Amino acid sequence: MNAPMRRGACPGLSAPMATGDGLLARLTPAGSTIPLAAFAGLCAAAQRRGNGVIEITSRGSIQFRGLTQVSAADFAAEVSDLGIPASDGIPVIVDPLSGLDCGNVFDAEPVANELRRALTSAPLTSRLSAKLSVAIDGGGPLHLDELSADIRLRAMQSDGEPDFHVALGGGATSAVPLGVIAAHRAVECAMRLIEVLATLAPQSRMRHAVETVGIDGFKSALDRMMAAAAVPAPRAKADPVGVHALRSGDVAIGIAPSFGHSDAESLHSLVDLAAHVQAAGLRTAPKRALLLVGIPANLAADVVAAAKAMNFIVEASDPRRRVIACAGAPICSAGQIPSRALAPVVADVLNGTEAPGFVHISGCVKGCAYPAAAPMTIVGRNGACEIYRGDDRVGSATVDTLPEQLGRLIRVRS
Ligand code: SF4
After folding, report:
1. Which of 45, 66, 82, 318 is surrounded by the most beta carbons within 10 Å?
2. pLDDT band at residue 5, thresholds of 50, 70 and 90?
């Protein structure tokens, strides 16, 4: 296997990253439903080869912690044997109920698979940022508007034919819009944009490239395939946590582990629950969620109640959903404060309040769990908690005095 990766790159299965509790490996599912037996196999491998901690990230990847130099290769081989389709290399992320939900304009998954194949055979990787990503949104209700991506394709219906709106570097409201292309040219479009990026601004993220070399090179690469179009209207926020109708008449039930992390045993119990109601399998979703797919609608309430009894989050309004926390100290060796241990404390402070929206707890200045400015951020620096509202520093506290200080700041504002 490869040597452990440098921090900042993406820790895939074959190149795990060293952190405070051993090596961390990441699996980015391709978007199709993971059969229950395969998901149970993931849990078993995580328990056998790592410390059993499993995380669902804000981009819907699955992270496995506590691997060792010896066990990581065996873990990668075991996961590979499970045959779970995954993005290996540049993540190509599709809307989480792609091909299944009621309001989809276009099934994004086949397009994503074709793009993954094209990327695998293109000799570009060494000239691309390790953090590059592509979002392909089929236009369904559980959309990807809030997910930031270097290239965004959003399916739309025009004159009865599906096409894709294309934008660069950001979320739906912040990305730089380019125009629309016919759906059958989506892969060609993405590959041309990536080639231009690799040529004009090697190793850059798309946003930085557009700001430094301009948009013209990207536009001219799509000259003959792109038409001008209005920027699509932003959609109402979508939360994967909840019950979602499927075209089949069944439902998908979105649940979330508290603060995005769980363990092999708890997730195995969730698989058992899904098996009990003959669910088709699980999918991951952005915003640190899991979807139990293909559950008879008349059993949804029972499944939600059972998942809640297992301490999974089953309601989007749960205050734990308003805290985004990285692992922090001592799990991450760079951590200055114990972000994960502070998360439930901060959720308690937020319970019953509207402001400040959500809070990001970052164990150090790197901000892995939420790279943008949050309404409120707690940053670990020199063992203390610095508190920011947007970009403005508004206070500081020790780990022990944080709840009181945070509560005071929130009360003053609201
Ligand atoms: S932000 Fe959190 S996870 Fe990222 S390096 Fe800092 S402590 Fe570690």
Report:
1. 45
2. very low
Does the CB atom of residue 334 touch ligand 1 within 6 A?
yes
* 17 pocket-lining for ligand 1 (C-beta < 6 Å): no
Say which residue, 355 or 2, is predicted with more confidence. Answer: 355
Confidence of residue 2 (pLDDT cuts 50, 70, 90): very low
How many domains, the chain?
A: 3
46 Cβ inside 6 Å of ligand 1: no
pLDDT given at position 7: 40
Split at pLDDT 50, 70, 90, the class of 160 is confident
Residue from 370, 384, 321, 283 nearest 35 by CA: 283
Judged against a pLDDT cut of 60, whether residue 3 lies above it is answered with no
Cα–Cα distance, 414 to 198 (Å, whole number)? 47
User: Is the pLDDT at 65 greater than 80, yes or no?
Assistant: yes
Tell how strand 92-94 and strand 289-295 pair up.
unpaired
Pull the structure tokens for residue 310.
């297992």
Measured between alpha carbons, how far is 175 from 167 in angstroms, rounded to an integer? 6
Are 62 and 131 found together in one domain? no
**Which CATH number is 170's domain given?**
3.30.413.10
Q: How far is the CA of 65 from the centre of ligand 1 (A)?
A: 14
Domain assignment of residue 234, yes or no? no
* Residue with CA at minimum distance from ligand 1 atom 2: 363
Q: What are phi and psi of 236, to 5 degrees?
A: -60, 145
> CA-CA distance, 394 to 384, in Å (whole number)?
14
The pLDDT confidence band at residue 414, using thresholds 50, 70 and 90, is low
HSE (side-chain half, CA atoms, 13 Å) at 221: 21
**Residue range(s) defining the domain that contains residue 395:** 320-413
